[in-house]
Specification:
Strand order of the largest sheet: 4-12-11-10-7-5-6
Structural class: alpha/beta
Protein name: 5-aminolevulinate synthase
Largest sheet: 7 strands, mixed
GO molecular function, one term: 5-aminolevulinate synthase activity
Shape: globular
Family: Belongs to the class-II pyridoxal-phosphate-dependent aminotransferase family.
Number of strands: 16
Distance between the termini: 49 Å
Subunit structure: Homodimer.
InterPro entries: 4pyrrol_synth_NH2levulA_synth, Aminotrans_II_pyridoxalP_BS, Aminotransferase_I/II_large, AON_synthase_class-II, PyrdxlP-dep_Trfase, PyrdxlP-dep_Trfase_major, PyrdxlP-dep_Trfase_small
Length: about 400
């Protein structure tokens, strides 16, 4: 086999389908978010505004977070020195886990290097703890959840997205005595729709099932203290395992689960993805703990964040652009073609200094390619006006349809 030729063919297919992903070189400047500097292909620099970042609240540049990280790195150095089982457990890791357990009203929390690893490691380990476990997974769950369910070697059932009736049918068809777990999300990041948390908890009670919720796109941003949609809806106590990230609204890095002491202890003891991975650097843990603590007492940031999202959606709707609006903070504008989506992204960057990455298959289904905007409290009126004008101009320039999508 000509391995190089096969690699060329694989990459060429992506180019032909308009799905080849390119990275642009940007440098965030401390204190200037959402502004950044783009290093253009010719080596020159240009100021741009980032509209697709997941640092939803700007906490990645909050002085409270930065000072905590500086203090920790001055005190401890750079790395943790090993896995949690060897030498990688520090006071900073324990402090962060305590903050997260308190945030979600759980006995314990367990840190991972990312929410992807937290999902994968936990969901792939649960069948070891509950032999014969059947996992019921929403068809639009994140890739990390899908991978964890796929790898665990146990039984799985895929239910139609947010279709509680279908989920009930699947559960009713299985052995009543079999251990069961329902895995779903609170906010699905591509469309911005909410999972039916209460209805799923009711089914879990009826069929004696555990519940596993991914709150990655909600922690920090929903609920009185930022614990997520489940906190907003007063349902945290009905969820057995809550997954979250430290890399989005909390502005740092890492992932975690929050659950009972025994559940976290068992995952800690059995999950290879936890056992054999070097722990987060202490400075990262310190910054994340400071961010979690800060956002527990910053409802005004959450309110402004929601207001910004509503303003942007209202203005784009007024232009007749086809956005999906489920009431969350995520603003997807449907283009429906991978080549056009990439072209719009390139033109926004080159002609307007606006950075938003195209979202193509397999992240979203073919025919639903989109630009996904993430307004934040630090996107000001000038940035908003510039974005709306640019979208209006480019939509006309590319002769795209102006038809609002129903939620």
């Amino acid at each position: 086999m000509d391995y190089t030729a096969e690699l060329d063919a694989a990459i060429d297919r992506l180019h032909q389908e308009g799905r080849y992903r390119t990275f642009i070189d940007i440098e965030r400047r401390n204190g200037q978010f959402p502004h950044a500097v783009w290093t253009q292909p010719d080596g020159s620099f240009r100021d741009i505004t980032v509209w697709c970042g997941n640092d939803y609240l700007g906490m990645g540049q909050n002085p409270v977070v930065l000072n905590a990280m500086k203090d920790a790195i001055d005190a401890t150095g750079a790395g943790s020195g090993g896995t949690r089982n060897i030498s990688g457990t520090t006071v900073y890791h324990k402090r962060l886990e305590a903050e997260l357990a308190d945030l979600h009203g759980k006995e314990s929390a367990l840190l991972f290097t990312s929410a992807y690893i937290a999902n994968d490691a936990t969901l792939s380990t649960l069948p070891k703890l509950f032999p014969g476990l059947i996992i019921y997974s929403d068809e639009l769950n994140h890739a990390s959840m899908i991978e964890g369910v796929r790898r665990n070697g146990g039984a799985k059932r895929i239910f139609r997205h947010n279709d509680v009736a279908h989920l009930r049918e699947l559960m009713a068809a299985d052995d009543p005595a079999a251990p069961k777990l329902i895995a779903f999300e609170s906010i699905y990041s591509m469309d911005g729709d909410f999972g039916p948390i209460e209805a799923i908890c009711d089914l879990a009670d009826e069929f004696n099932a555990l519940t596993y919720i991914d709150e990655v796109h909600a922690v920090g941003m929903y609920g009185p203290r930022g614990a997520g949609v489940a906190e907003r809806d007063r349902l945290m106590h009905r969820l057995d395992i809550i997954n979250g990230t430290l890399a989005k609204a909390f502005g740092v890095m890492g992932g975690y689960i929050a659950a009972s002491y025994k559940m976290c202890d068992a995952i800690r003891s059995y999950a290879p993805g936890f056992i054999f991975t070097t722990s987060l650097p202490p400075a990262v843990a310190a910054g994340a703990a400071a961010s979690v603590a800060f956002l527990k007492q910053a409802p005004e940031l959450r309110e402004k964040h929601q207001a910004q999202a509503k303003i942007l959606k209202t203005r784009l709707k007024a232009l007749g652009l086809p956005i999906i609006d489920h009431g969350s903070h995520i603003v997807p504008v449907i283009v429906g073609d991978p080549v056009h989506t990439k072209k719009l992204s390139d033109m926004l960057l080159k002609d307007h200094g606006i950075y938003v990455q195209p979202i193509n298959f397999p992240t979203v289904p073919r025919g639903t390619e989109r630009l996904r905007f993430t307004p934040s409290p630090v996107h000001g009126p000038d940035e908003m006006n510039k974005l709306v004008r640019a979208m209006d101009s480019l939509w006309s320039h590319c002769a795209l349809n102006r038809a609002e999508l129903s939620a």
